[in-house]
Amino acid sequence: MDRIPEQALAWAEAGQPVALATVVETWGSAPRRAGAQLVVAGDGTMMGSVSGGCVEGAVVVEALEALEHGKTRLLEYGVSDGDAFAVGLACGGTIKVLVEPVRPDALSVKLLGDLVAARAAREAVAYEVALDGSARRLVSEGHTDRFRRDRSGVDEETGHFIAIHNPPLRLVIVGAVHIAQHLVSMAREAGFDPVVVDPREAFGSPARFPDCKLMNDWPDVALREIGLDTRSAVVLLTHDPKLDDPALHVALGSEAFYIGALGSTRTQASRLARLEEAGFDPDQAARIHGPVGLNIGAASPAEIAVSILAEMIQTLRRP
Predict the structure, then answer these.
(1) pLDDT tens profile 190-225
(2) Are strands 37-41 and 46-48 parallel, antiparallel or unpaired?
(3) Largest separation between any pair of C-alpha atoms in the chain
(4) Most Cβ neighbours (<10 Å): which of 9, 54, 167, 174?
C-alpha cells in the first residue's frame, strides 16, 4: 500500500506546510490511473507520483503556489498543452490533477488523520471532494462497485471526485516451502502484505523468511486469528492434506478474493472429494484455483511463484 496520506499527516503534524496532489481524471495513455498521489512539503520535498515522472516538476511548482495562497487548484496537462510538452507529457495522454493544501480552510489535518486511522484499521473508506474544493468528507457506505473494483474516479451525478481507500492487499501463504520464499518477495513488490503460516518451525523460520510475518500455528487457527476479508488471498503450498484441508475449511468460509492450492489435477480431484465429504458444496469448492497458478509452463520454484502471483492479480483486477 502507498503511504502518501501517512507521510502527508506526519509532515503536517510536524509543522510543515503540506499539499496533496491527486490524479482525478485521465484520458488516452496517461501513465498513472485516477487516485495516484504526490505529497509536497513546503520545503519542496516530495513523495509519490502523479504521472510516472512526466509532469511532477510542474505539479510541485503549482503545489507550492497553492500552499502560499491556501486554495485548492485543479490542473490539466495534455498533448494539446504547450506546457505539457515542456514537462514531458508527449505520449498522447491527458490528466487532471487536484492540488489540496492541508490547512483548516482546505483539507484539514483532522480529516487527513481520520483517513490514516481508517487505513490503519483496515477499514474501507471513500474520500469525496468537490473539484473546486468547496466540500469534502469521508464515507464508508455507498460506492459499492468502486470499492469492489478498487477504482477511484469522478462521480457523474455529483461531479465530486471519489478516492477509494481499500485495506492493503494481504497474502497468506500456508506452507513455508521453497516456492513460498520466492512468492513472498514477489508479492511484496506487487503491493501485498505477506504472512507465512507453517507449524513446522524448521520450515517457517526467520532465517528462511527474513522481514516477513511468520505464524508457527496450525493453519486453521492462524487463518481465524488473521481474519480473512475481501482484500485477502490464500495460497496453500504444503501438499499435505493435514495442513491444507483445515486451512481450506476456513478460507472457503471467508470472503478472500483468491484461494489457490498447489498440486496436480489428480491431487485437486482428491481434494474436492474430501471437501464434499466434509459438507462443502460444488459451488464453494469451485472457488479453489487448483492446480494453482496460470498455466504458463512454469517449472522452477520462482516460475511457479510468478504464475501464482499473476493468477492472483488477474482474479483481483478482472473478476
Answers:
(1) 989 999 999 999 999 999 999 899 999 999 999 999
(2) antiparallel
(3) 68
(4) 174
